[in-house]
Amino acid sequence: MNALTYYIRIATLISVGLVSTLQAVAEVPDPIAYVTNQGGGVTVLNARTLKQVDEVAVGKDPRGLAVTPDGRWLLTANQGSADVSVVDTGTRKEVKRIAVGRNVEFMRISPDGRRAFVTYEPSSEGGPPAKNDRAGKGEEAEKDEAPAEVAIIDLSQWAVVGRIKAARETEAIEFSPEGKLLLVANEGDNTVGVYELSTLKQIRRVDVAPFGNRPRGIKIAPDGKTYVVTLENSNNLLLLDAAFKPIKTVPTGQGPYGIAFDREGRYLWVAASRADQLQVFDARTFAPVATIPVGKRCWHFSFTPGEQKLLLACGRSNSVQVIDAQKREVVDTLQGYKLPWGVVTYPTSVGTLDAPR
């Protein structure tokens, strides 16, 4: 082989490699955001352009939702039809329904990606409790006292394989850092239940009543040292240490619910829904950093995969608001939704309903 032939072959290999690299880059799909509409189905957004790409029909009144770690399946918790829909994200068609129970609402997929955990309330008609709302109701009051449950769905079988007895009116759920424990916020009796996933047995019950009222959201800090619980009716946060001991309360705007740390754990974002605000706190000192005016009944949100923006579902405004995460201001309002409830993305982003694994 002479020198000219050698260099021609080297140039050819480099060219082929460059073309292959460019093709691989070009074929990387845009990230996707999924938004549940209580008054409709699931809106599919291009999370880069924020343009709607599809609308997926699922069960009635979808609320909670989750995407499997490989992005292949989308699950929705359908309050009105008492089941979970399984959607093929490639075809964007529902392929299966899994019966769960009345008033299904919150959903998370386990850190190992093998199971979905879905809260539901067999005795509940849904909606928030009023003060002394069970007084004088006799038999109906006793029915309302029945504990809610968490259904466990095996994602390889698409079937309910277990149920955890919780307390009245389960809401948010969270996992411990090592994925061995499940935490459940029980708004109806002011507790946070801690369950061992290997046995499905409760190992701890945290009474939050001395610190506030109606726990709804719960998130663990990225460093695994602190859990933060939103107490909706007392307008504050409760911090628990890694052993679930209450250590501090932090005042918020009215009606805090959805909550999430950013990926680095520098800031904590809180949806103060009754105040029509999205609040930002320093995650080390929990001092307030910013307050962003938003729409009505904004409960859940997710960062986009690039973490430059945040998507906030505002149910009573029938919109999704786009927040610039650096400027901490609303930069766009996406209209045309029907009581939007929750939002998640793929690839998985930090948000109130999900976290990168």
From TrEMBL:
Residues 131-146 have a biased composition (Basic and acidic residues). InterPro entries: Host-pathogen_enzymatic-act, Lactonase_7-beta_prop, N2O_reductase_N, WD40/YVTN_repeat-like_dom_sf, YVTN_b-propeller_repeat. Residues 1-26 form the signal peptide. SUPFAM superfamilies: Nitrous oxide reductase, N-terminal domain. The keyword Transmembrane helix does not apply. Residues 119-146 are annotated as: Disordered. Keywords: Signal. Transmembrane segments: none annotated. The keyword Disulfide bond does not apply. PANTHER family: DIHYDRO-HEME D1 DEHYDROGENASE (PTHR47197:SF3), PROTEIN NIRF (PTHR47197). This is 40-residue YVTN family beta-propeller repeat protein. It comes from Ralstonia holmesii.
